[in-house]
Design brief:
Layout (H helix, E strand, L loop, with lengths): L5 H15 L3 H25 L6 H36 L14 H33 L1 H7 L1 H12 L8 H5 L4 H19 L17 H4 L13 E8 L7 E8 L9 H7 L3 E7 L6 E8 L4 E6 L14 E2 L16 H11 L9 H10 L5 H19 L1 H6 L1 H18 L31 E2 L11 H4 E8 L3 H5 L15
Antiparallel strand pairs: 1-2, 2-8, 3-4, 3-6, 4-5, 5-7
Helix pairs in contact: 2-3, 2-4, 3-8, 5-6, 11-12, 11-15, 12-13, 13-15
The structure holds heme C (HEC) (5 copies).
The site of one heme C has 20 residues, from strand 1, strand 2, helix 16 and strand 8.
């Protein structure tokens, strides 16, 4: 006997399926398969181009829609099996099937049904997908949807210089491979939120953050950094008059085009700095510096570390966030935050002892933000009522305004529900409240030279033009005197 032609074999195999699939369960399966298939085709190209970056979309694309699709296939198969069993039992299962052409009513119906389901999904998909994806990628979604978890980051972000940069531009950045990586960790994160197993606070440093140079340099690139920047930092004392002094630094920002300075030293072309530290990156044990343009290569180590025990493979390559670790989520300390608010006039510097009382009230312990919001203004008002009754009577408004600015400082920096207290997140840009630059500068010795350290020369990073001076001569020279606004350095 000659072998059967392929199409005949196919018909023999397919005809019973066409016949049996005209049952309710299989039809539901067909609808699911088309939903899964059509939406998946819509989302996948966006995902691969890196346009869609939210973890929920990732879950949808990589788990949800495939589950719907294969679930639908299973239903189709189950419907067919049940139908066959039923027809066999009743003895109505046909011995022979009509050919698969348009005269076959069942075949026509199946095609029509699949066609309508697909069309409906295309129409619905077009309407839904774009809006849904744009929403899920938005800052509102990232910051608010899992709001307890992300609240600290969202609130601090809103006060940062990057308040108009979308979360995903730093946390994921362009390109498909990091998109997929972020999806995988996103899936894990969503489950952590659903199951309430996420860590409080969220620990830093984020170990799988994309190398900052690939994200930050989309907008800032080292060749563009300027030479110097005047940084003006206000200070208020804890005396009755809240005496103001000012620090003025000329920061040697520098750039990557051989202009030296801070950026020239660490992120210029040809420079590579590798370092080893504890998991918090706050204690640096060794640093290797290499400049391929000058051929310079040096190793610096701390007192406890022997050069021979260093494993360079375990080192971290220094990038922007080793200094700018709070570009978007700036957590301030009470003293510093009060200085800023006093300088900005939101807290009234005319109120006696406001600096001292404010810092004390901020540092007191409160169980929730609501409790702080109620207690801080009450306590401040009480302080003036008992200690300075005349001020309390005459300056009611100034006290109320200052009190609410004080409570606002608390709400912007302390998040009891996430167990974030003052100073939990260190700021590496500086060397006063946290080790910052001095993690390396000052503690690390050139290998083999106990007396030679990484520079701690005050003028290498900044010229200290005035340090807590009541009336800095430099500001007078610049014409910034008296009532003229001096501006407040936004930090980072
Ligand atoms: C300008 C870039 C940038 C933007 C914009 C940004 N982040 Fe971050 N984010 C960072 C950096 C850098 C870190 C710190 C990484 C480290 O210390 O390892 C971080 C840390 C975090 C952390 C870990 C906890 C912490 O506070 O350090 C979370 C959670 C987070 N970001 C969420 C968000 C959310 C939500 C948004 C949008 C509302 C956002 N980020 C916007 C750069 C950014
Ligand atoms: C999508 C663009 C974009 C990305 C990505 C971005 N930034 Fe920025 N950044 C800006 C803009 C815009 C400003 C200016 C804000 C202003 O002038 O108030 C800025 C300001 C800054 C400043 C100066 C703040 C100040 O005090 O004036 C620093 C430092 C900075 N960014 C660091 C970073 C770091 C580090 C990263 C990567 C983690 C990053 N940026 C990612 C757009 C971006
Ligand atoms: C060694 C630490 C260090 C590294 C690494 C570093 N920066 Fe900076 N950066 C600083 C300091 C310090 C300042 C000045 C801060 C100030 O003015 O208070 C600064 C200032 C800036 C500014 C503001 C510039 C201006 O002219 O106002 C931007 C933007 C910036 N850095 C972005 C970056 C980016 C992007 C990278 C990574 C390519 C980077 N930085 C790497 C320490 C660093
Ligand atoms: C992880 C270690 C590390 C940290 C943290 C670090 N630096 Fe550096 N820094 C280095 C190394 C290494 C060199 C190069 C030393 C050399 O040339 O021998 C350097 C050089 C410099 C130089 C040039 C010094 C010179 O003599 O020309 C400046 C300026 C500087 N750093 C500023 C900063 C500032 C500001 C910070 C903090 C915001 C900082 N560094 C944080 C490792 C670090
Ligand atoms: C490795 C670089 C580096 C060295 C060395 C260095 N500083 Fe700084 N310093 C910084 C940075 C970065 C800041 C933060 C600037 C900002 O807040 O914008 C800073 C801030 C300061 C401030 C302002 C603090 C405040 O909040 O009022 C003072 C004062 C200061 N430095 C003094 C010194 C003195 C004195 C020395 C010498 C013993 C010195 N620094 C050495 C990098 C350095």
């Amino acid at each position: 006997m000659p072998p059967e032609p392929t199409h005949a074999r196919f018909r023999e195999w397919f005809s019973p399926i066409v016949h049996l699939s005209s049952n309710f369960i299989s039809r539901v399966g067909v609808v699911l398969v088309t939903i899964g298939g059509v939406l998946w085709l819509y989302l996948l190209p966006m995902a691969l181009r890196g346009e869609v970056v939210h973890p929920y979309i990732g879950i949808l694309i990589f788990m949800g829609l495939p589950a719907v699709f294969f679930g639908g296939l299973l239903l189709i198969a189950a419907g067919i099996a049940i139908q066959k069993h039923r027809e066999l039992r009743r003895g109505v299962y046909p011995a022979k099937f009509p050919p698969l052409d348009f005269n076959n009513r069942e075949f026509r119906h199946l095609l029509l049904f699949v066609g309508i389901a697909t069309m409906a999904n295309i129409v619905i998909g077009t309407q839904l997908v774009y809006g849904g994806v744009t929403y899920m990628d938005s800052v509102t979604f990232c910051g608010r949807t899992c709001h307890t978890v992300m609240k600290p980051e969202y609130v601090t972000y809103l006060h940062s210089p990057h308040a108009r940069v979308a979360c995903v531009q730093c946390h994921i950045g362009p390109g498909a491979s990091w998109f997929v990586r972020s999806k995988l960790s996103g899936v894990h994160q969503v489950f952590a939120v659903l199951l309430n197993t996420y860590p409080r606070p969220i620990p830093v440093p984020i170990s799988n953050l994309r190398p900052a140079r690939e994200t930050c340099e989309q907008c800032h690139w080292p060749a563009r950094f300027e030479g110097n920047r005047l940084v003006i930092i206000p200070h208020y004392a804890t005396d009755q008059a809240n005496t103001r002094t000012t620090t003025v630094l000329l920061m040697h920002i520098g750039g990557g085009n051989g202009q030296g300075g801070i950026h020239g030293a660490h992120v210029a072309a040809g420079v590579r700095i590798l370092y080893g530290a504890d998991p918090s990156r706050q204690k640096v044990h060794w640093v290797e510096y290499e400049n391929t343009r000058t051929g310079k290569k040096l190793l610096y180590v701390d007192n406890q570390t022997h050069s021979a025990t260093i494993h360079f493979q375990t080192g971290r390559s220094m990038d922007c966030i080793d200094c700018h670790n709070q570009p978007a989520h700036q957590f301030h300390l009470p003293n510093e935050a009060m200085n800023t608010e006093l300088a900005a006039g939101r807290i009234d510097a005319q109120l006696p002892y406001i600096k001292r009382e404010g810092v004390a009230l901020l540092k007191a312990s409160y169980r929730t933000q609501q409790e702080a919001t109620q207690s801080i203004p009450r306590a401040l008002t009480e302080f003036y009522r008992t200690k300075f009754p005349v001020v309390a009577a005459r300056q009611q408004q100034a006290i109320a305004r200052s009190a609410s600015a004080l409570a606002q400082i608390y709400r912007d920096n302390v998040f009891p529900r996430m167990k974030i207290g003052w100073g939990y997140y260190p700021n590496n840009l500086g060397h006063m409240a946290f080790p910052g630059c001095f993690r390396c500068h000052g503690n690390l010795h050139l290998a083999g030279h106990a007396d030679e350290t990484l520079t701690q020369d005050c003028t290498v990073c900044h010229n200290p033009l005035a340090i807590q001076s009541p009336n800095p001569a430099i500001l007078q020279q610049l014409g910034l005197t008296g009532t003229q606004p001096q501006g407040v350095n936004p930090g980072q």
